[in-house]
Amino acid sequence: MPVIDSTSTKPVIAVAFYSTYGHIDALAAEVIKGVESTGAIVKPYVIKETLPHEVLQKMYANTSLQAKYPAITPNDLKEVDGLILGAPTRYGRLPSQVDNFFDQTGQLWATGGLVGKFVTMFTSAAGQHSGHESTYTTTFPFFAHHGMAYVPIAYSNPLVGAVDAMQGSSPYGASTVAGSDGSLKPTANDLAVAEYQGKYFANFVGTFVKGKQAAPAATTTDAAKSVPETSNGYSVDKVAGEPTDKATSTSAPAQANAEKPTPAVDGTPAPAKTAENGSPAKTSTAEKKPKKKGFFSCCDDSGIDK
Q1: How many whole angstroms separate alpha carbon 69 and alpha carbon 45?
Q2: 3-state secondary structure of 263
Q3: Does residue 153 surpass a pLDDT of 50?
Q4: Which of 83, 107, 146, 290 is the most exposed place for a label (fewest CB within 10 A)?
Q5: Which segments carry the region annotation Disordered (predicted)?
Q6: Same structural domain for residues 161 and 20?
Q7: CATH code of the domain covering residue 71
Q8: Domain count for the chain
Q9: pLDDT band (50, 70, 90) for residue 201
């Protein structure tokens, strides 16, 4: 495994996959090639097998695939910026081997170890309508609970939407059609989309890593300025140095002058204004409007009939 430099702007991408017969392994080789073409650091892994050897023999599985790369552990994910996950479909979802790995990531979930990391997937199914898309969508809850951001390839490569021959792949990611007996091999388009996905994902994550490394550290003063004032739980935009309510705020000298009585011509204070009955006049300039007695007059405080 390559030594990772924490100051490097190169993204670190893990390609972890499980393959029973070799279809996912073939796609993984192209995905790895695509990641490497961007200059990113790629860390290939296999997902550990859980079935007994005698069962795999009866399934005619390719058991040699497990020896290609080290088996991934949950701690390996803490050191990467992105994960490309590959696995075949089982009834429209991931196989139990991958679920077993997911079940080991409880500590990462408890500590938020995968929050903010990027992820994408590739898969394989028996037929053209045998769970390609559902394998992606049924895995999304795992990514959501860990706070991982899924990166689809959409139709950014024209081969994704090709219909002139039987092939895999979708906007979610690369895939291939294996056949019910596993006899079919990935097409040239399948392999090209897989390589493209590795390149696309690595460049996507790389943009984020470079921006994160280049961003200056925020100072305490800057952090304080960036916090908006709130009023009744709602954010209030405010320019530094300006009062929150320009309409009602007055300067201190203006308030002081307003409180002083107006002197008369001979220097004695002028008497305060009084109403006709001799009581002090009300200072409020807005007269209180009488409440209407309409259909909703029982609900005066609601403001419905005002």
Answers
A1: 5
A2: strand
A3: yes
A4: 290
A5: 218-306
A6: yes
A7: 3.40.50.360
A8: 2
A9: very high
Return d(Cα 157, Cα 133) in angstroms, integer.
Answer: 17
- What pTM was computed for the model? 0.70
At residue 121, φ and ψ (nearest 5 deg) are -140, 160
- The pair of structure tokens assigned to 185 is 């091999």
The Cα angle at residue 129 between residues 127 and 131, in degrees rounded to 5: 95
152 found inside a domain: yes
What are the structure tokens assigned to 247, written together?
A: 């309409």
φ, ψ dihedrals at 282, nearest 5°: -70, 140
| Three-state DSSP state, 213 | helix
Whether 3 is in a domain gets the answer no
Distance CA 250, CA 253 (A): 8
Q: Distance of CA 212 to CAs 7, 10, 112, 160, 217, Å?
A: 11, 11, 19, 31, 10
Identify whether the C-beta of residue 189 lies closer than 8 Å to the C-beta of residue 232: no
pLDDT in tens, 95-132: 999 999 999 999 999 999 999 999 999 999 999 889 99
**Are the beta carbons of 147 and 103 closer than 8 angstroms?**
no
Residue 202, domain extent: 12-214
**225 in a domain, yes or no?**
no
* CA gap 147, 140 in Å, rounded: 10
Beta strand ranges found along 9-160 (DSSP E) = 12-17, 41-46, 82-88, 118-125, 149-150
Neighbours of 185 (CB within 10 A): 14
Angle CA 119–199–162, to nearest 5? 95
